[in-house]
Here is the input.
Amino acid sequence: MQGNIIRLALGAVIALGLQCAHAATVNGVAIADTAITDTLRATGLPDSPQAREAIKQQLIARELFRQEAAKDKALEQRADVQASLREARNQVLMQAWLKDHIKPAPVTDAEVRARYDAIVATLGDQEYKARVIEVADDATAGAALARIKAGEDFAKVAQAVSLAPSKTAGGAMEWVSFKVPVQEGKTQNLPLPIAQAMASLPPGAITPAPVAVGERRYLVKVDAVRPTQIPAFETAAPGIRQALQAQALERATLALVTSLLTKAKITQ
Here is the structure.
């Protein structure tokens, strides 16, 4: 709620169109141009005069709010403010401690290359662009399939009934490739029956009957098939490195938590 109020107030200040130099002062308090640059970088926005002006107005507004809050001497003594200050202090200290103590192993160029080669080795000769509709039972799957056979667009039915995250995109999935015949554990994380259905369908075709995966039922449509497009190592390497770094961080964090748990006395 407070965040919404602050955003509304910042918007109001920007709407007033305050005119300042690149480095502004607010009642004698300087806002350095470097603060504008740092905030711009943190937001990830392209550097433009419009973006810099908008950020400058936000920094001006924040400084105005800070000054007004500082004038209210009773504010800091309020119980809710005290609780928030304690929580903020704890968060700052915790983050600083974690930064000092979580030391993930660095990811080497050799590890990135090895992961790239392993991924490429799992790819088949062809890749598939497919759509899926996921439903909870046979009856719903049968009704959805009947609508499609009657001429309704697969994507429209997916948007109406699918339970999959891809429903808003009409059931569309990313291009995926795997070796054929399809083997368990080598399907790019797809359920085996879904991958088998993709590999068996020509472009434009839909599974003639719902595909069972556990308790869920799926309809699969293959939009297109093409020779597998393997990205060059230089193109794929940054994403692979980022994924490996995230895994290293997760392992280091788990090791630290495990170490702390072994020393702690916890009662429940």
